[in-house]
Write a structure and sequence with these properties.
- The protein has a single domain (2-144), classed as Transcriptional regulator MraZ domain (Chemotaxis protein chec), CATH 3.40.1550.
- The chain contains six helices and eight strands, in the order ββαββααββαββαα.
- The chain has helices spanning 20-30, 51-62, 69-80, 97-103, 123-131, 141-144, and strands at residues 2-9, 15-17, 34-38, 45-50, 83-85, 92-94, 108-115, 118-122.
- The protein is globular, with a radius of gyration of 16 Å.
């Protein structure tokens, strides 16, 4: 299970170094095979899945009927754009240039451990998102039951 927030630097070649605290977990979870794809719900963010978790997500998304445009859109953003990456000897992964550009990820980014996957945010998008508060009228029934 991944959790936590880490400031990340993306080098000039578009590589990010997996934080030391996650390296063993990534190796154990997927033998260092990760999948980078778009976050179809948030601007400024990419998703990074361990390969086994990715296979589950991919199969569920591909099982949706392609008759509906919203399903095709989700399939395109998740499955169509998915790129398998493996850390090099320095624990760096290469982020696809098209995905970096679309998410606005440049030199500074934020890596969030979100349980079964990572979210990689552009620094600006993360800052904007984290500054948003959840208003009372946005609280769902499920959220209201949480004991925070």
């Amino acid at each position: 299970m991944f959790q936590g927030e880490t400031a990340i630097t993306v080098d000039d070649k578009g590589r990010l170094t997996i934080p030391t605290s996650y390296r063993d977990q990534v190796a154990d979870a997927c033998k260092n095979r990760l999948v980078v794809t778009y976050n179809p719900f948030e601007i400024g963010c990419l998703w990074i899945f361990p390969y086994a978790e990715w296979e589950r997500v991919r199969d569920e998304v591909n099982a949706l009927s392609s008759v509906k445009a919203v399903h095709r859109n989700l399939q395109m953003k998740l499955v169509g754009a998915a790129t398998i990456v493996e850390p090099d000897g320095a624990a760096r992964i290469l982020l696809p240039a098209s995905q970096r550009a679309s998410a606005g990820i440049e030199k500074k980014a934020v890596l969030l451990g979100m349980g079964s996957k990572f979210e990689l945010w552009s620094e600006q998008a993360h800052l904007a998102k984290i500054r948003q508060t959840i208003t009372e009228d946005e609280i769902s029934d499920d959220m209201a039951e949480l004991r925070l």
